[in-house]
């Protein structure tokens, strides 16, 4: 089986996913096109050689509808012959795009492909695709008669199950902002971020990072999900999830170029890493965010590696208790997890986040001299992706 080589990876800065956010004035197709163009310019590849562009997007409605990846390819100026497809594995959509791209190369179906993702949560608000609709049907309702819950309630249930205090959640969130702010100041994001032109200047920093955030300041925020209906249903919950220990609504795009060894040699591409192993897992759709545990176990088993063999981790910070529960169960070294901060600071533009995690993970491995990196993403419905990459030295 052929190696799936990672040639390069880029992302936009994250903008606040609300009107007036730094990227809110940019159509998601154009935001997506920006990272596609930047990627081919950085690699020097003729986009006519691309076998496919596989992209993730969650809110596939309105301005992100109608196979938005195809319109991004055309907006980027790529030849009309370059195909594209948009996929939805919820928050893991662009991570799944990377999996599909790698599998296509490994099988011989592709030689050169881009896996990407976009989400403009300011222009396509979260939940737009299911607004006023029942996405579950009678069969799911019969199987789960007590009903499914929003992700925020799932995060509360996880915090309660693992006995995670409000203080620990806020401290973890403050640390995420501190790490991201330090990475920004020191230039550790410089290679991964492609600045976005705006007016006479450009945006080159994550708008969502709040330097100077403290646990004491976060402690003043009110719980976000403690309304009467949920407190009556779950009297055992202490209600610890706030806007401060959860990821913010965000706008952003990411893109990763993958190639076969033959294609890399043919076009003089210098790969930065290879996709070592991938896995997906399903779990309880109520406590839906802990699918990352079976996904992590599965990808490590598939790779023949232990948790201690991994030099850097990116565990998506949808909510603080997700990562803290994962740490408690896996025994991973917290110093190796989200080294440059996570989604609570950097943002979580849903369809782009899987590619963002890989882009950041690749940078961390290069900055620290690590070999193996593992990223995992919790997803609605009790799903999760996990990916191990291996840095190529030199």
UniProtKB/TrEMBL annotation:
Its EC number is 2.3.1.16. Residues 5-260 form the Thiolase N-terminal domain. InterPro entries: Thiolase, Thiolase-like, Thiolase_C, Thiolase_CS, Thiolase_N. GO terms for molecular function: acetyl-CoA C-acyltransferase activity. It comes from the Bacteria. It holds the Pfam family Thiolase_N. The active site is at residues 91, 348, 378. The keyword Transferase applies. Keywords: Acyltransferase, Transferase. SUPFAM superfamilies: Thiolase-like. Residues 270-391 form the Thiolase C-terminal domain. NCBIfam families: AcCoA-C-Actrans (TIGR01930). Belongs to the thiolase-like superfamily. Thiolase family. This is Acetyl-CoA C-acyltransferase.
């Amino acid at each position: 089986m052929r190696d799936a080589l990672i040639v390069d990876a880029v992302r936009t800065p994250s903008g606040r996913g609300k009107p007036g956010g730094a990227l809110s004035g940019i159509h998601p197709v154009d935001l997506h096109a920006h990272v596609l163009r930047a990627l081919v310019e950085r690699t020097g590849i003729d986009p006519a050689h691309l076998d496919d562009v596989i992209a993730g997007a969650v809110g596939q409605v309105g301005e992100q509808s109608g196979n938005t990846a195809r319109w991004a390819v055309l907006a980027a100026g790529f030849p009309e012959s370059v195909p594209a497809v948009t996929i939805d594995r919820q928050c893991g959509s662009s991570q799944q795009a990377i999996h599909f791209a790698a599998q296509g190369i490994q099988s011989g179906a592709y030689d050169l492909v881009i896996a990407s993702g976009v989400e403009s949560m300011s222009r396509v608000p979260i939940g737009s695709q299911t607004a006023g609709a029942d996405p579950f049907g009678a069969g799911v309702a019969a199987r789960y008669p007590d009903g499914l819950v929003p992700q925020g309630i799932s995060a509360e249930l996880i915090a309660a199950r693992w006995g995670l205090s409000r203080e620990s959640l806020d401290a973890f969130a403050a640390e995420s902002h501190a790490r991201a702010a330090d990475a920004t100041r020191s230039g550790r994001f410089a290679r991964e971020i492609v600045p976005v032109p705006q007016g006479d200047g450009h945006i080159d920093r994550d708008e969502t990072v709040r330097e100077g955030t403290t646990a004491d300041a976060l402690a003043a925020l009110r719980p976000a999900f403690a309304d009467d209906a949920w407190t009556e249903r779950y009297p055992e919950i202490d209600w610890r999830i706030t806007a401060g220990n959860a990821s913010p609504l965000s706008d952003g795009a990411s893109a990763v170029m993958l190639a076969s060894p033959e294609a890399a040699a043919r076009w003089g591409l210098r790969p930065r890493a290879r996709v070592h192993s991938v896995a997906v897992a399903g779990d309880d759709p109520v406590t839906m965010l802990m699918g990352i545990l079976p996904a992590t176990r599965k990808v490590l088993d598939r790779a023949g590696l232990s948790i201690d063999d991994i030099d850097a981790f990116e565990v998506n910070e949808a909510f603080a208790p997700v990562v803290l529960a994962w740490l408690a169960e896996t025994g991973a070294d917290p110093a190796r997890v989200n080294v440059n901060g996570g989604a609570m600071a950097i943002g979580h533009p849903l369809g782009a986040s899987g590619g963002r995690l890989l882009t950041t993970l690749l940078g961390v491995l290069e900055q620290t001299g690590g070999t193996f990196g593992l990223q995992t993403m919790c997803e609605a419905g009790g799903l999760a992706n996990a990916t191990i990459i291996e840095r190529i030295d030199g």
